[in-house]
Structure formats: structure tokens, C-alpha cells
Amino acid sequence: MASKLGSDSDDLVETHDINVTPFIDVMLVLLIIFMVAAPLATVDVPVDLPAATTTAQPRPDKPVFLTVKADKTLAIGDSSVPANGLAGALKAATKGDTDTRIFLRADKTVDYGDLMQVMNDMREAGYLKVALVGLEGLTKP
User: Each residue of 50-60: pLDDT tens digit?
Assistant: First the structure.
């Protein structure tokens, strides 16, 4: 509350002006804090991708599972497949139907680059429908 002094009357007159200087100071401090904190929020976050909490999608009667093991060897179903024979093994497992969805699963220790190489090999063989398989119903604490 501000008052005017130096008046001849004994009544103090109130002025209704708002002092905005403290508000501007607070806003400038907040602006500086956000300018410093914003670049820190864009740092890479380590993730563990194999677990999923989504509901399971219905599978076909005889799904084709392609597995990338921890030692980077491949398997279709239960049979091992050499890396250079992936296209032929997929054609044999799907009877030549490239529209068949391939369920791809990999050990969590497999590098992302190795998994992408397998997916590139599948794409070159003509198999574009890929479903990634993860553990169901698990959450990280």
C-alpha cells in the first residue's frame, strides 16, 4: 500500500498502482533457470527394450519366429540358419509367401546394429512385415 506524503490534509490518500518490479525479477530468474535446464533435458536416456506392457496381439496358427541368439546366430523356429542362408530359409518356412508376418525376437545382449542387419537382410529377401517380440507384462522398477 502506497500513500502520498506532503499533502495539506490529514487524510492519507491511497494510490492503487501495482509495483511490477518484483514480478519482472521473478520472471527473469525463471527464464534463466529454464534456459539452463532445457539443454540438460535432451540427454540420451538408457533404455531396456525387451520388456513390453501392451496387450498381446493375436498370432496366426503357425507363426514364423526368427530368433537372433546372444552369440548372433540365427534360428527359424527350432532349426539354426546360417547368416548367408537367411533368405532361402525364410522362403522355405513361408512357402515363398513374402506377405507372411515374421516374428523377430532377439536376446537383450544383441547389439542394435546386429539386429538392424538382420532386418535389412529380411527386407532384401522381400519380407517387409516384421513383428518385434518382447516379454509381456513386465515393468521396470
Answer: 555 666 666 66
